[in-house]
């Protein structure tokens, strides 16, 4: 039987985790010593996205008996595209001035806008100066494919057991990545692709299904959560896994995915040390702006690191990227959120509580996806 007490509204610790993830990504791109493996920070985003998206879809299916696909895709578009379009427009105007010899600005922007950067980078080295666009493409492919796939799994599973095929998909995605490693494929050809990086999104999806359905396994896991908290403590050791180290593909990503699942489970209880640490105001604010910071940070870091040492690059890049992200959030993103969350006309609404667009404080499960 599916649980009836599974609730997931706004959780500030989720934004705190986003804040940690964006810091790790900036450390990686700024080439901070001892943080060679900080590129694994993007896997925190993947697991959290899979968790929230799957929670949203399962709750909608439970409440309405179906998922409104068009509404789901429209809401995702309005959340993501305004900020991306603004960023790419500014990039096209500024990049030729920052890098006079650059001749692929429009091509890079087009590939990024179409969410083709993951396979473009893996096989065609495009986009080059927008290397960070690969992870947005990975997530977008998941957003497009997962809703109908998940509903097929729901319909094909016994009540309360959709977690089983989701777990199987996670294991298959993990084995799929290892197969390419075993065949000797280049590190970057494995690292950037949706099909070889889907395991993090599926790991989050698995946790969402477990929390929604509450099988006996979930109770067993929660009872042993204090022992599992040792796993996140192993993540700092992964910072030794530098770029082109296939160990990151074989076991590094897996450790981060499992550790993130443990953290999400701890945060979901809304109490305890992990929850209190990750709901620190500075981390929460950083996490609130993490999407915009992620968009803007890479060109900023790329430019600064050519001129300055990393101790200056990190705070400057963070400050510049956060300022640009805040400007984006309070203009085009606010417009997109207002349009996304516009109240239906009388007689057509569902009565759901609308988030405060002015403050950005969400109030429902859907708004946890901010």
Report what the structure shows:
With 370 residues, the chain is an all-alpha fold. It has one domain (12-369). It is built from 17 helices and no strands. The protein has helices spanning 12-29, 42-64, 69-98, 105-113, 117-124, 133-156, 163-182, 187-191, 194-213, 216-223, 225-228, 230-233, 246-268, 273-278, 281-288, 290-305, 310-340. α3 runs antiparallel to α17 (310-340) and α7 (163-182) runs antiparallel to α13 (246-268). It is globular, with a radius of gyration of 20 Å. The model is unreliable at 1-5 and 346-368 (pLDDT under 50).
Helix content: 55-70%
Order of helices and strands: HHHHHHHHHHHHHHHHH
Quote the distance from N terminus to C terminus. 30 Å
What best-fitting shape do the alpha-carbon axes yield? globular
In the predicted model, the low-confidence regions spanning at least 5 consecutive residues are 1-5, 346-368
Oligomer: single chain
Question: How do you describe this structure in short?
Answer:
The protein has 17 helices and no strands.
């Amino acid at each position: 039987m599916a649980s009836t007490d599974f609730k997931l509204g706004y959780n500030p610790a989720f934004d705190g985790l986003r804040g940690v993830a964006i810091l790790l990504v900036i450390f990686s791109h700024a080439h901070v010593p001892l943080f060679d493996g900080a590129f694994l920070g993007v896997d925190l985003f993947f697991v959290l996205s899979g968790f929230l998206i799957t929670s949203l879809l399962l709750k909608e299916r439970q409440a309405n008996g179906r998922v409104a696909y068009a509404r789901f895709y429209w809401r995702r578009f309005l959340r993501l595209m305004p900020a991306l379009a603004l960023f790419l427009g500014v990039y096209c105007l500024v990049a030729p001035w920052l890098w006079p010899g650059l001749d692929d600005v429009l091509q890079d922007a087009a590939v990024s806008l179409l969410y083709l950067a993951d396979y473009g980078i893996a096989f065609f080295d495009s986009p080059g100066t927008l290397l960070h666009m690969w992870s947005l493409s990975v997530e977008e492919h998941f957003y497009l494919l997962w809703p109908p796939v998940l509903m097929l799994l729901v319909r094909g599973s016994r009540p309360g057991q959709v977690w089983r095929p989701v777990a199987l998909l996670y294991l298959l995605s993990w084995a799929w990545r290892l197969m390419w490693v075993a065949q000797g494929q280049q590190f970057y050809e494995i690292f950037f692709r949706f099909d070889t990086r889907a395991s993090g999104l599926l790991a989050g999806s698995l946790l969402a299904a477990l929390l929604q359905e509450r099988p006996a396994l979930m109770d067993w896991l929660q009872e042993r959560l204090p022992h599992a908290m040792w796993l996140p403590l192993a993540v700092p050791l992964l910072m030794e896994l530098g770029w082109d180290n296939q160990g990151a593909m074989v076991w590094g990503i897996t450790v981060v995915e499992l550790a993130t699942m443990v953290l999400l489970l701890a945060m979901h209880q809304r109490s305890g040390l992990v929850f209190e640490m990750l709901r620190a105001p500075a981390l929460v604010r950083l996490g609130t702006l993490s999407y915009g910071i992620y968009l803007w940070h890479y060109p900023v870091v790329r430019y600064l690191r050519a001129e300055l040492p990393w101790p200056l690059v990190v705070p400057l890049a963070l400050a510049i990227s956060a300022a640009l992200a805040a400007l984006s959030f309070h203009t085009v993103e606010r417009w997109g959120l207002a349009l996304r969350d516009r109240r239906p006309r009388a007689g057509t609404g569902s009565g759901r509580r609308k988030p405060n667009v002015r403050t950005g404080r969400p109030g429902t499960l859907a708004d946890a996806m901010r």
